[in-house]
Amino acid sequence: MSLEEDVQENIKEMMLFEWPIEQLISEKKLLITQPELYDFDKLVTHIEDAATKMKAKRIVIDSSSLIGLYFKDAFKVRRAMIDLENMLKRLKSTAVVINEIKEGDEGLSTYGVEEFIADGVIVLYCQKKENLFARAVAIRKMRATNHSMKIHPMQIRKPGGIVVFPSEEVFTEF
């Protein structure tokens, strides 16, 4: 579910990684959709209907940060995030919900509730040391697992995608 970016733009960007996007779409193994953003309940219904129709095993929502635009009250935003999480759990699919945070922000989410209701939280970083920026990733939370507590360097490669270097440290040789 693309809540911000145009579907065709998403497809173009995915194709840069040489993934067989068009084939996956024609085989009905991938659906990229951009629902109307006027009503939260309709958004949730759209996600649930699309996922159910294609028997989705994985759902990606980019980005949940927009959900707050539906509500003026912080409590209602939190309630909506919990409702979204409950719907995703009913689908018994793996859900990746992208959330934006401001650079340098110590929080892990836009509304301060997402990291508590999620089973896992993966944080992407762009860290600076002197005149060098390095991409990095850390698992901040992953229920029922014994995961690394370190920040690991990563690269985004074309073609391919994300490559994580689990035995490396940020700002050592890549």
TrEMBL record:
KaiC domain residues: 1-174
Keywords of the record: ATP-binding, Nucleotide-binding
Pfam families linked to this entry: ATPase
SUPFAM superfamilies per record: P-loop containing nucleoside triphosphate hydrolases
InterPro entries: KaiC-like_dom, KaiC_dom, P-loop_NTPase
Keyword presence, Membrane: no
GO molecular function: ATP binding
Record's protein name: KaiC domain-containing protein
